[in-house]
From TrEMBL:
<dbReference type="Pfam" id="PF00248">
    <property type="entry name" value="Aldo_ket_red"/>
</dbReference>
<dbReference type="InterPro" id="IPR020471">
    <property type="entry name" value="AKR"/>
</dbReference>
<feature type="domain" description="NADP-dependent oxidoreductase">
    <location>
        <begin position="11"/>
        <end position="302"/>
    </location>
</feature>
<protein>
    <submittedName>
        <fullName>Oxidoreductase</fullName>
    </submittedName>
</protein>
<dbReference type="GO" id="GO:0016491">
    <property type="term" value="F:oxidoreductase activity"/>
</dbReference>
<dbReference type="InterPro" id="IPR050791">
    <property type="entry name" value="Aldo-Keto_reductase"/>
</dbReference>
<keyword id="KW-0560">Oxidoreductase</keyword>
<dbReference type="GO" id="GO:0005737">
    <property type="term" value="C:cytoplasm"/>
</dbReference>
<dbReference type="InterPro" id="IPR023210">
    <property type="entry name" value="NADP_OxRdtase_dom"/>
</dbReference>
<dbReference type="InterPro" id="IPR036812">
    <property type="entry name" value="NAD(P)_OxRdtase_dom_sf"/>
</dbReference>
């Protein structure tokens, strides 16, 4: 009983920031988002073939899923793909915490299935993975992925699913020019060898690699990302300047180059979008082909910056 291969657009769209409440200082991004603005984002994305939306219960404790459903209202369910996650740290104490969390997500997103359902963190692979099997059999979950898992944890999840005729179809880890631990640990190579889709999140390092921010123009005060990144912006200047120059030759931004780099590495970047013009940037990035020398140069500059952007929730790979 194998599922059909996972087919997705070149870039997935992330909705982490859609979970912010809009109150100053609340949430990771401090975003103030309107329902009409997000509907405009969806319309522009879909007309450009960007149809995979990645969310999670953990993003604003369900607010992101609810906002996404509102923005997608009126779109035919077959026109887009939904990706959401089971987060072990938020598990309830019923008989089936994984199924329960999925049901709540389906309810918030006003759908009867998700295209991709992830175990968000590897709290206990042997405990949580088996619960995915009945969800796959029922059709409520079309494909299964694992996020923030190392090679050993991916293999264990794959073995458990394999006994029921399924497999881990996708891996989603933090992967950017500044954070290449999944590559160094052999996870990218594993995914290539087994035809597993690797989704890279935080490709733009929450804005620090967009070229929009610098020591003179730091990230917005009061947001979590300002605390994490403002102190290292001086060390990123040479890298982001070079990304900007490479982008300029191709009518794209530094952010577009960061996204194009992730595509060049054989991954599917998940890019957070909150404004319609973000979609224009993603479309431009999708069309950029970086030369091998450019990829190597960017990675050398990133290594020279010598920063650690591993999130507090992430284990070493």
């Amino acid at each position: 009983m194998t599922s059909k291969a996972l087919t997705v657009p070149a870039v997935a769209l992330g909705t982490w920031a859609w979970g912010d409440s809009g109150e100053a200082g609340d949430g990771y991004f401090g975003s103030r988002l309107s329902a009409s603005g997000l509907r405009e984002v969806v319309g522009k994305a879909h007309s450009n073939g960007l149809t995979l939306w990645d969310t999670a219960v953990a993003y604003g404790m369900g607010r992101s899923e609810t906002a996404l459903a509102q923005a997608l209202a009126g779109c035919h369910r077959g026109e887009y793909q939904l990706s959401t996650k089971f987060t072990p740290q938020l598990a309830g104490d019923g008989d089936d915490p994984v199924g329960d969390m999925l049901e709540q997500s389906l309810d918030r997103m006003r759908t009867d299935y998700v295209d991709l359902f992830w175990i968000h963190d590897p709290a206990d692979v042997a405990r949580w993975t088996p619960s995915l099997i009945p969800l796959l059999r029922s059709g409520k979950v079309k494909q299964v992925g694992v996020s923030n898992h190392n090679l050993k944890e991916i293999a264990l999840a794959d073995q458990i699913l394999g006994e029921a005729g399924f497999r881990v179809e996708a891996v989603q880890n933090h992967y950017s020019l500044l954070h290449r631990s999944s590559e160094r640990a052999g996870i990218l190579a594993h995914c290539r060898e087994h035809g597993v889709r690797f989704f890279s999140y935080m490709v733009l390092e929450q804005g620090a690699l967009t070229g929009r921010y610098s020591p003179a123009h730091p990230l917005p005060e009061g947001s979590n990302r300002a605390t994490v990144y403002n102190g290292i912006l001086p060390r990123l200047q040479e890298l982001t300047d070079r990304m900007g120059a490479i982008g300029k030759d191709r009518g794209a931004s530094a952010a577009g180059v960061a996204i194009a780099w992730a595509i060049a590495k054989g991954t599917t970047p998940i890019v957070g979008v909150t404004k319609a013009d973000h979609i224009d940037g993603v479309v431009r990035a999708r069309g950029i082909e970086l030369a091998d020398e450019e990829v190597a140069e960017l990675e050398a500059l990133a290594d020279a910056a010598d920063v650690d952007t591993r999130g507090w929730w992430e284990n070493e790979m």
